[in-house]
What we know:
By secondary structure, the protein is mostly beta strands. It has strands spanning 4-10, 16-26, 34-39, 42-49, 54-63.
Amino acid sequence: xxxxxxxxxxxxxxxxxxxxxxxxxxxxxxxxxxxxxxxxxxxxxxxxxxxxxxxxxxxxxxxxxx
Length: 66
């Protein structure tokens, strides 16, 4: 997958919308796809909400440590 930029609600900013880098997608983890995104130098998981067509990046509790 080629990384791309998208808008997302950021958990640490109380849902404020900012641009993130979408790095990967894991379609086999749950019933809905889980994305790996990077915001402000932090890699974390994000979920797509199809009802509002937005990503929700959880940079508080779902940080990906390498």
